[in-house]
Specification:
- Helix 5 packs antiparallel against helix 6, helix 5 runs antiparallel to helix 10 and helix 7 packs across helix 10.
- By secondary structure, this protein is mainly α.
- It is globular and about 85 Å long.
Length: 313
Amino acid sequence: MLSFTLKRLLSGVILLFAVATGTFFLAHAAIPDPTLGLLGSAATPEAQAALAQKIGTDRPLLVQFGDWIGGMLRGDFGDSWKNFQPIGKQIALKLPVTLSVVTVSILLSAVLGGVLGVVAGLRPNTWIDRAVKAGSVILFALPGFWVALVLVMTFAVQLKWFPAVGYTQPSQSVGGWLQSITLPAIALALGAIVMIAEQLRNAIMQADRQDYVRTLRSRGLPQWRVVIHLLRNAAPASLTILALMFVGLLSGAIVVEQIFALPGIGAMTQGASQNGDIPMLLGITVITVIFVVIVNFLLDILLGWINPKARVK
């Protein structure tokens, strides 16, 4: 198990370095002269030259990369080119907002998707089974921003159950915090719920046809204990889908935060893209990849613990 863990950890580190390197050169290729976006209407040749010297873009690209990668290894992402404040501190202020929405979305997806998947898998060809299959098709066809707007119009504007926009810090009010992230979390979770339900349904239906399940039932085992055995066999596929959903939810948070006016990483990413703030984009990318690597690492360890055959693979 130790060798398995070390291999997964090493692969995560290699992935992080590869993504960081690729993002650095792609960002500089996409924004060859960031001084234009940073200065805006004040972009004169003199002002651009002065800013390029200040932010270091007048140096060779490989020198810039060496300085940046060295700082990243020390945990220093540098300063923003827009406000010249430390990037790490700015991300630390915004990241809890995004993570709170994504975490609640993951919990909703796991619980509701798990319940729907189990019921649909145990009762095939019933109304709930057909509803799960229909929901998978419909929700994947609907744009995420449209679903978010419908939730705002229905539950915030008409029913006034939740605030339409804004974010409340949990230190100010736990109830207000839950209200402010409920609609964004639901908007993110809907697609993930039906995907997990569909995956779990298929896994349970497949496992339910195995000989050992018929043997358990023939011994008079209660249904709930049979369900536990079915869930253990369906867990690897469902956990993999859940980990993939985490990556997708982080990406979807960029759009949802704009609709609900949440001060998270999404709004920061959009602002950095518009301004040509490459260090901010790189910092957000690296932090995001770190979370993805951690989630995948924990998933691999959990799957290796559940299924020892996965350690060999």
